[in-house]
Amino acid sequence: MANTIASTAAPGTPEPEHEATAFGIAAGGWVAIAMLVVFAIAIIAKVPAMIGRMLDGKIADIRQQLDTAKQLRAEAEALKAEYEAKARDADKEVEALRVSAAQQADEIVAKAKADATALIARHSAMAEEKIAAAERAVIAEIRATAADAATNAARALIAEKHNAGADKALVDKTIAALGRLN
After folding, report:
1. DSSP string, 131-174
2. Whole-number Cα distances in Å, 94 to 61, 91, 102, 104
3. pLDDT tens, 21-52?
């Protein structure tokens, strides 16, 4: 009959709540006691110190990673600066090569113009020399032809106007003139 509880309350009124208790402590009290025991064991077993050491280890690892990251960043910045300097130097070298190539091209063009002018002058001089030589040859040929024509004309005139008697008188006159010269 321990299982039956008599109710003395009036009908329609709420029944009073009854909780089970052990040693006079309700369930909430036992939970609080259990928590205090767990905390006491944790403190006695130095769990907070272990947690602190674990956290300190994690902090040290994170600091080491941060230091490594800083070092890597510094190295990356140094490499970046080095490559930027190399790029600037390469740009300067390219510009110097471009200027040098332009100067060489100008010099080659100027030399080619000078060589062409000299070649034209040499060819002109050679052509003028050939023309002068041809003129001299033509003049010599004309003179020879004129001399031959004059000789032939003189021979023909002499042959017509002089006969043997006239020739004898001319020869005698020439011989007499020769005698006076000596």
Report:
1. HHHHHHHHHHHHHHHHHHHHHHHHHHHHHHH--HHHHHHHHHHH
2. 48, 5, 12, 15
3. 777 888 888 899 999 998 888 778 787 788 88
The number of helices, as runs of H, and strands, as runs of E, in the chain is 3, 0
Q: What is the pTM of this model?
A: 0.37
25: β partners: 22
For residues 16 and 9, is the Cβ–Cβ distance under 8 A?
yes
Spatial distance between the Cα atoms of 98 and 83, rounded to a whole number of angstroms: 22
- CA angle 108–114–116, rounded 5-degree value: 100
Residue 7 has φ and ψ, to the nearest 5°, of -110, 125
CA distances from 179 to 13, 168, 172, 176 (A): 201, 17, 11, 5
- For 114-129, what is each residue's pLDDT tens digit? 999 999 999 999 999 9
At residue 162, what are phi and psi to the nearest 5 degrees?
A: -105, 135
